[in-house]
Amino acid sequence: MTNGINRVVLVGTGAVGSSYAFALLNQGVTEELVLIDINVDRTEGDAMDLNHGLPFSPTRTKIWSGDYSACAEADIVVLTAGAAQKPGETRLDLVEKNTKIYKSIVESVMDSGFNGIFIVAANPVDILSYVVWKYSGLPKERIIGSGTILDTARLRFLLSEYFDVDTRNVHAYIIGEHGDTELPVWSKANIAGILLKDYMKKNSAFKAADLEEIFLNVRDAAYHIIEKKGATYYGIAMGLVRLTKAILQNEHSVLTVSTYLNGEYGNEDVFIGVPAIVTRAGIREVIQVDLDENEQQQFNHSVSVLKEIIEQIHWDDM
Fold it and tell me: Domain check: are 153 and 140 in the same one?
């Protein structure tokens, strides 16, 4: 921390990164924002453009284009850089390309003397969170992947539309890999404290089959958006700002982020999306939701898919 001033360093100013910077400025979450990208002209242009919006922002934010030396005094380094997911490509297809990119980025950040919190947002986010943890040498609590924070938001939105209830009163989680093996925790989903299965009994128009369709739309949302406009960035950008705020303001909020399991949910040595308490010091605690038998099996499968990928990484070749 710099003289009590919050500093966020953003590495990667592509569609997700620039959207995050814009949302961060609009919400006035941090006092300093440093932009880093291999395309220096773009970061300089973004810094200029964002600064021109300062008269309309809720608070004063100092924004500039910098280099990795700025990470030395950063509270959070947000990683959105990396190869983008292409139409027809899964998040796990990006492993080899982005693992190599992230080794170089993390080494550059750590060479600055950085001792804060990493937020990882590039895909496959669970694998890259593990990679950042390994290459940074930082405690596992200070590596936080965006995980299923967006998937959970998508689920809450679609459920709110289906039941015609404000999203803020819909409580439901997507957990597991941020990808094809993720799963909804239907057994604990509720509206205003009423379990979904009980809420649905009040109206015969609500069908269990509709919930499955809703989940499929959540799981495959990125593919549909990528097909239509080439990339997803607004939703995840706002999710990252929410996570940044939870850290900087020491909120102790529960968010479905990618974090390290050390026996929780019967699994270990993997980063995966689960509810966790987020504080200024990083992850304080993994919240262990009591899954039903089917959900636990699905979650274990999601873990096994991620572990299989991790085992294929050639750490010494990078």
Answer: no
228's tokens:
């239509």
Active site residues: 178
pLDDT for the residue 92? 67
To the nearest 10 degrees (0 to 180), the angle between helices 234-248 and 15-27 is 50
Domain identity same for 171 and 36: no
Mean pLDDT of 83-93: 70
- pLDDT digit string (tens) for 34-59? 999 999 999 999 999 999 999 999 99
Whole-model pTM: value is 0.94
User: Does 33 lie in the same domain as 175?
Assistant: no
Q: How many domains does the chain have?
A: 2
Half-sphere exposure of 142 (CA within 13 A, CB side): 15
3-20: per-residue pLDDT in tens? 589 999 999 999 999 999
Print the domain residue range for 287: 149-311
Secondary structure element (H or E) that encloses residue 212, with its range: helix 208-219
**Distances, alpha carbon 256 to alpha carbons 163, 169, 271, in Å:** 22, 17, 12
Handedness of CA 254, 90, 19, 118 (dihedral sign): positive
The answer to whether the beta carbons of residues 318 and 312 sit under 8 Å apart is no
